Each structure stands twice: as C-alpha cells, then as structure tokens.
Amino acid sequence: MDIAGPSPDPRQPLITGVTRLYAVLGDPVAQVQAPTLLNPLLAALGRDAVLVPVHAPVDRFDDVVRGLQAVANLDGLLVTVPHKAAVRRFADRIAPAVELSGSANALRREADGRWHADNFDGAGFVAGLEAAGHRAAGARVTLVGTGGAGCAIAPALLMAGAERVELCDLDPARTAGLAARLEARWPGRTGRSTRPVTDGVDIVVNATPLGLRQDDPLPFDPAALDPGTLVADIIMKPRVTPLLRAAAGRGLPVHYGAPMLERQLDFYRAYFGLDGEGARR
Known about the structure:
This protein is α/β, with parallel strands linked by helices.
C-alpha cells in the first residue's frame, strides 16, 4: 500500500521539524504582502524557514509578542500597522533608525538571546521612490500621518536630501516628539501642521492607514495639489487605493505602496543573516 502521500508542491515551502520561523504582526493582518514576497526568497536561498502572518489584536499585543519571543525556533518578527511604535519596548537593543523614528518594523533574535530592533520602512520607501524615477533630493515633501511608518519615512527623506518635510497629523502631540528629533539633526528643514500642506510641494505621501478599506475617506484632496505633484501611498493592498485613483483621475503622477516593501527585501536578507551559512539563532 502506498502511504507516501502526494508529492510536495515545489511552489510551497516544505515545513520540517527544524524549520525556522518568522512572523509578521498586524491588526488587521489580511493586507500584508510580506509572506508573498519573502517566502519565495527564503525558498530561493535554500532556507528551511517560513514567514507567517499573525493577527495580533491591539488589546492582546503584549501577550502575542511575549509568547512569540518565547518560541525557541522563532528568529525574527516583522511588524505592521498599528504596532510599530509599541513593539519597540520589546527590544533589548535598537538601531539608529529606531531612535530617530521612535518605531520599529523588524526585530531579530541575537546569538545571546536578546532582541534587536530596526526600521527599514524609510529606507525602503526612498529606495522605491528613486527606483521609480522620483528624486527625494531637493524635494519639498508633505508627509500625512506620523504613525510608525510615517515616523520612519520622515528621517529617511531628510537623509536622502529632501529640502523640507512637512509633518501633518490630526494629533499634534504625536508629531511633537518626531519633530523634535528631526529638528535636532536637521534644523530648519521640518514643519508641523494638523492639515496637509498642499501649496508649493513636490511630493505628498499618505502614511496613514486610510485606504485599506474602500469606504475610508481620502487622507487629503488631490484637487488641491499643483499640476505635476507626485502623490505617493504606502498602502500595498489594494494596489490602487481610492487616493491614487483620485489623483490619477486628475492627471497627477502616482507612486504605489508595494515598492516600499519590495525594496526592503535586500535589507531583510542582510539583517536576518539569510545569505550566510545559517539564519541568526
């Protein structure tokens, strides 16, 4: 009797008893694209590892993270909305990008068992922007939303040479800490407002979650923008958000969310040691 079962699907990762685990945390989590991009990379690199989505409700977030950090074969975490600021407290060591942004989107277990946090959202966003032919250097940028992703994108834009970054958020208290950190390093190149600044800007970035759902209001009105202003959205699913649809309908250039994550793959490869003889333990 044949008890071997069906042949494994070569398109799917083969889970074994020694498979290393990574998790991406969010609330919601259905929109995450990291497993779709990272699992084929792990397979191509010959890693016996898999990245899985974990729905971590805000009111259970601490329990979820502590539980995952206790899993001995879990090597790292990726983090999305709305946990990027909150996850910082679970790190024993932090990278400069986390200090500047106040948030993290990746944690790895170090060889000594401690956890290190970094943030690649900003670098990924700028790399994706420039790969699409849009220069950050010399640009005047309005950044709408100073949550976890926005706090990472702002310093990355300034580091890339943006002339000015206007931080816009309905909650001025949330913007204050970020503005102070940026002003200390790049004096005179940031501003703060509770309404999106649309006059005389080159790029407007939506770094809010508005657009994840089709019935969300627009984070700002593209009709108020000057011709030629680039409208960028960090939301990856849906690819064409209501904001980008409205902007394109007015003839404005648009930049999609997916390149921000796609450009982070190389950062993740280095950060998690995926190209070496073994993943970090």
